[in-house]
Every structure is written in structure tokens, then in C-alpha cells.
């Protein structure tokens, strides 16, 4: 230490001295003051992770979307002039899209740089995070289409949830969470606006969100999108946190 | 000096711009100041040492572990503390939850976390605000919360990138005291533009310019490098200006 340290605090109430009070026989003091709390359990860890990722907002939003989808699907199917269950296409196309967009912000913490410098096995956590979220979204949204699951009902809702989730997660890797919703939103709106009536193979590939659930090709496309998105996200993570620009715009990725 | 951080031939570039150019650096326990003009490569070096930026070339060893090896990387990360220049805070967290979250991310034993969290918050003087949400804190308090998450795991390598930005003078004095305490048994690297912090708290100082290390020595040696004719209002500012001038002249 050099000789210019005259400004070192002389008061016994410095930040340096405080921890000694808590440790040098003061561990018990700290506990008795009620500072220290219960050991961090597994449940507590999940709760912290969910809070860090905006989990409660996602869950509430998902339930709201499912209730609205259920109400809208019932109303549309009950109008004789709309053609029965086929009239539920808007619900099948839009509700999963909204749920996937809602998932976007949860794909990164507020500071990815801080988090990535920690030893947690992030690949497994990211994979688990997105798989659980997709499973939950599909399960909750499918409830809105259980009345007639085959005709633009629960099956199509599950398929579209997985497909849009794959798109959003893949976009998060390339563009970052701030823009993760954009490609899925533009694509979903474009397909819905185009409203293709055909069910041939080519149409099923590019317009899978508005295909009947019996179109096998649409499931294959969704499978590819979902696996690619989840794999990319598990391996690389989202391209930057909420306040940062995406990795695609920056030059290099992190260690791993 | 027992070397805890070793950097050899480090090269990092952003597109065509070279941020770090064949940098060699050895650091042992103590407080090391990292000075340099804007764009010198200080933050890039910090990010590489914090294991968030992969270098294009070169070898980095933290605590004897090569970062190129997955096991070594994970082991080093457990003993790292890092405060970036700016960090995105978690608005839904209280200060205590924020520090606890990072204690968990750093894989601290669960039984040690509660006390370690309170100790870290106490060390930065935020105990009275520990249960306040992050979104209700001032800029200086957020900075102190960031320092608390960096030190919660009693790291052996601590990286602070402009840690005193936003702190008031009294907090800066207290932070310097904390730095000195941390530097007793850990490598503490502090990147700063405030040369008075270096004089007051650092045992060694390194100066970077254009991605290269142009000075590495004691603060007194940097002060001695300055002359009466050099620009600056204090001896170390004059030393800083003189070393930079000489390095740039030699590079031409």
C-alpha cells in the first residue's frame, strides 16, 4: 500500500468494519438481527429464477390469453353463419402467437453478461426453461380447444404453440430478446392475412399456422422450427439481455 | 508475486478494429488499477477475464485454470466476481434477492448463502435498503448492489469496471477501504478513469493504450514518470500523460 492512503476511513462505522461485526463472533449477532434467512432451497432457487425471468408476468398473461381464446373460440363456433368449428381459425392462429411473444422477454435475464460469467450449467437451464414454458403454453392453450379438438381445436393450438415458440426462441438467439417477437409476429400476421385455402404440401409448409391439424406436413415444419429454435437457444442463449443489442449485430459470442 | 491471473498473447478484435493486441499480463493478490483513455481496451480486457468474451487468440489462466478448458472455466467462474461498467438491474428483485440470485448462480453452497448475502450487503452499506426493490434505488445504490453481488462469493479474482461511477465522495472513500481489504487475499482489478482512486487504493497500476499495455508498475513509479512540463493537475495525472505520450511516440 502506498503512502497516499490518508483518506482511509477512520470511523469504526465503515463498510469495512461492518462485516467483522457480523462474522467475528458476530455471525450470531447478524442472525439474531434477522438479517440472515433460511438456507436457499431448490424451491427458492426456482422462485428466484422465475422472478429474474419475469415468470409471473408470463403465467398471468398466458392464463388471460387462454381464457380469451376459449371465449372467442366458443363464440365463433356458435355462430351458424361462420361455418361452425372452422370459424376458430383466428383463435388457432393468433392465441399461440401471442403466447409465444409473451415468452420472448423471459428468455434472458436483465443482464446476460453478468449471468453468463457464472458457472451455472446454462445450456441445461436454458433448454429446461424453454421446454417447460412451451409445454405449459401448449397445455394451457389446448384447454381452449378441447370442445372439438380435431377441427381447428386443441391439436392445432398445440402445433401452433410449438411452431411460434420455435420461431420466437430462434429469433431471440439471432436478434436478442428485444426483437424476438418480431419475425413470428410478422410471419403470423402475413399468413393469417393471406388466408390460403389450399391444403397441398407447399401451402402446408409456408402456411402451417392456418392448416388443419390433420396436415402432417405442417407438423413436420413445426417440429423442425421447434427443435432448431430450442437447440440454438440452449447452445448459444439469447443474443444480449434486455438492454443490449443482439449478438447478430455484435461480432463475437461468449465463451460458451 | 504469486501469479493468479495470467494472460499471454491476448488478441481481441471487433470486426476490423483491434481492441487488444498481443497483450501479456500477470496479476497476483492485491489491488491493481487499470488506467487508459477511452477505447484503450480496458473493458474488453475485463470482459475476457470475466469469461464473457472469448478472445480471438491467446491464453488466459485464472487461478491456474486455463479458460479454454470447460472444467477449468467452470471452476474459475465459481471464484470470480465481476462488476461490469453498466449492468442491467432486475427491477422485480429486492437488493437481497438480487445478491442471493447471484450467490446461487455462482454455485455457492446453499447453507452459506443467507449469511454471505447479508454480509455482502452490509459491506457496501446497503443493509437498510436490503428489502427495497431495485427499481426504487438511486444510481449510486444500484452500483453498490452490483458490488455486493460481485463480492458475495468471497471471490479470489475480482473485476470492477469503473466501480466508483455514480458514488458520492463519502461512498468512494468507503469503497477504497473495501478495495484495500479485498486486496489482502484476492486479485482485485479495477478499471477506472479516476486516477486519485488508483493512488489511494491500488498496490500496482497498469496503463493501456490502443489495446496494448504501455506501463505496469507501482503507483509511485507512474508518478515519477511525470515531469513539471507534463499536462495534469496532480503528480499522477502528469505521470499518466507522460507515459501515454512516450508510448505513442514510440509507436510511430
Describe the structure using short key phrases:
heterodimer; A: 256 residues; mainly alpha; 2 domains; 11 helices; disordered N terminus; disordered C terminus; B: 252 residues; alpha/beta; Rossmann fold; 6-stranded mixed beta sheet; 4-stranded antiparallel beta sheet; 9 helices; 24% strand
Write the layout of secondary structure elements.
The complex is a heterodimer of chains A (256) and B (252).
Chain A: H1 17-23, H2 27-32, H3 42-52, H4 55-78, H5 89-103, H6 112-116, H7 122-142, H8 154-175, H9 181-194, H10 201-206, H11 216-236
Chain B: E1 5-14, E2 17-27, E3 30-35, H1 42-49, E4 57-62, E5 65-66, H2 70-78, E6 80-83, H3 95-105, H4 113-123, H5 139-151, E7 157-161, H6 169-182, E8 187-191, H7 195-201, E9 204-209, E10 212-217, H8 219-225, H9 235-251
Parallel strand pairs in B: 3-8, 3-9, 6-7, 7-8
Antiparallel strand pairs in B: 1-2, 1-4, 4-5, 9-10
Short description:
The complex is a heterodimer of chains A (256) and B (252). Chain A is built from 11 helices and no strands.
- Class of secondary structure makeup of chain B: alpha/beta
The N- to C-terminal Cα distance of chain A equals 38 Å
Count of folded domains of chain B = 2
Order of helices and strands of chain A: HHHHHHHHHHH
Q: What is the count of β-strands of chain B?
A: 10
- Write down how many β-strands of chain A occur, each being a DSSP E stretch of 2 or more residues: 0
- Helical amount of chain A: 55-70%
Q: What is the CATH domain class of the largest domain in chain B?
A: Alpha Beta
Write the element-wise H/E pattern of chain B from the N-terminal end onward.
EEEHEEHEHHHEHEHEEHH
Q: Order of strands across the biggest sheet of chain B?
A: 6-7-8-3-9-10
Give me the oligomer status: heterodimer
Q: Biggest interface between protein chains, with counts per chain?
A: A-B, 53 and 67 residues
Q: Beta-strand percentage of chain A?
A: under 5%
Give the integer mean of the pLDDT values of chain B.
93
Count of helical segments of chain A? 11
Mind telling me the C-alpha Rg of chain B? 18 Å
| Terminal residue distance of chain B | 33 Å
The average pLDDT of chain A is: 81
Amino acid at each position: 500500500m502506498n503512502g497516499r492512503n490518508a483518506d482511509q476511513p477512520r470511523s469504526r462505522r465503515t463498510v469495512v468494519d461492518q462485516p467483522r461485526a457480523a462474522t467475528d463472533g458476530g455471525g450470531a449477532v447478524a442472525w439474531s438481527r434477522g438479517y440472515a434467512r433460511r438456507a436457499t432451497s431448490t424451491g427458492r432457487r426456482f422462485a428466484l429464477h422465475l422472478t429474474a425471468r419475469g415468470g409471473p408476468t408470463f403465467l398471468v398473461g398466458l392464463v388471460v390469453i387462454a381464457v380469451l381464446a376459449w371465449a372467442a373460440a366458443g363464440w365463433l363456433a356458435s355462430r351458424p353463419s361462420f361455418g361452425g368449428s372452422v370459424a376458430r381459425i383466428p383463435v388457432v392462429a393468433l392465441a399461440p402467437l401471442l403466447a409465444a411473444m409473451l415468452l420472448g422477454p423471459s428468455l434472458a435475464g436483465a443482464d446476460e453478461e453478468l449471468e453468463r460469467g457464472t458457472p451455472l450449467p446454462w445450456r441445461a437451464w436454458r433448454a429446461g426453461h424453454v421446454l417447460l414454458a412451451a409445454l405449459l403454453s401448449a397445455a394451457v392453450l389446448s384447454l381452449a380447444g378441447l370442445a372439438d379438438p380435431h377441427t381447428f381445436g386443441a391439436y392445432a393450438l398445440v402445433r401452433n404453440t410449438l411452431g411460434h415458440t420455435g420461431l420466437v426462441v430462434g429469433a431471440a438467439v439471432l436478434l436478442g430478446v428485444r426483437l424476438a417477437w418480431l419475425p413470428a409476429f410478422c410471419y403470423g400476421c402475413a399468413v393469417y392475412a393471406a388466408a390460403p385455402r389450399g391444403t397441398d404440401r407447399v401451402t402446408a409448409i409456408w402456411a402451417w399456422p392456418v392448416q388443419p391439424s390433420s396436415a402432417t406436413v405442417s407438423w413436420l415444419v413445426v417440429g423442425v422450427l421447434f427443435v432448431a429454435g430450442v437447440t440454438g437457444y440452449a447452445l448459444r442463449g439469447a443474443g444480449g439481455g434486455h438492454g443490449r443489442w443482439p449478438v447478430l449485430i455484435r461480432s463475437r459470442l461468449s465463451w460458451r | 508475486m504469486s501469479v493468479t491471473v495470467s494472460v499471454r498473447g491476448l488478441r481481441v478484435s471487433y470486426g476490423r478494429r483491434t481492441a487488444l493486441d498481443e497483450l501479456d499480463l500477470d496479476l497476483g493478490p492485491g489491488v491493481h488499477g487499470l488506467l487508459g483513455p477511452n477505447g484503450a481496451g480496458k473493458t474488453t480486457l475485463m470482459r475476457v477475464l470475466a469469461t464473457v468474451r472469448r478472445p480471438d487468440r491467446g491464453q488466459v489462466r485464472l487461478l491456474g485454470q486455463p479458460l479454454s478448458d470447460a472444467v477449468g472455466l467452470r471452476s474459475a467462474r465459481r471464484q470470480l466476481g465481476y462488476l461490469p461498467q453498466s449492468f442491467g438491474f432486475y427491477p422485480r428483485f429486492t437488493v437481497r434477492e438480487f445478491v442471493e440470485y447471484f450467490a446461487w448462480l455462482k454455485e455457492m453452497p446453499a447453507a452459506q448463502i443467507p449469511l454471505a448475502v447479508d454480509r455482502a450487503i452490509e459491506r457496501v452499506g446497503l443493509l437498510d435498503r436490503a428489502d427495497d426493490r431495485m427499481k426504487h434505488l438511486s444510481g449510486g445504490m444500484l452500483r453498490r448492489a452490483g458490488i455486493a453481488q460481485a463480492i458475495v462469493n468471497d471471490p479470489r479474482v475480482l473485476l470492477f469496471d469503473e466501480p466508483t461511477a455514480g458514488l458520492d465522495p463519502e461512498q468512494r472513500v468507503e469503497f477504497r477501504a473495501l478495495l484495500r481489504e479485498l486486496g489482502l487475499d484476492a486479485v482485485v482489478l479495477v478499471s477506472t478513469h479516476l486516477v486519485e482512486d488508483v493512488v489511494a487504493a491500488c498496490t500496482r497500476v497498469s496503463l493501456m493504450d490502443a489495446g496494448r499495455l504501455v506501463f505496469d508498475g507501482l503507483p509511485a513509479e507512474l508518478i515519477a514518470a511525470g515531469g513539471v512540463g507534463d499536462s495534469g493537475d496532480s503528480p499522477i495525472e502528469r505521470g499518466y500523460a507522460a507515459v501515454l505520450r512516450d508510448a505513442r511516440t514510440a509507436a510511430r
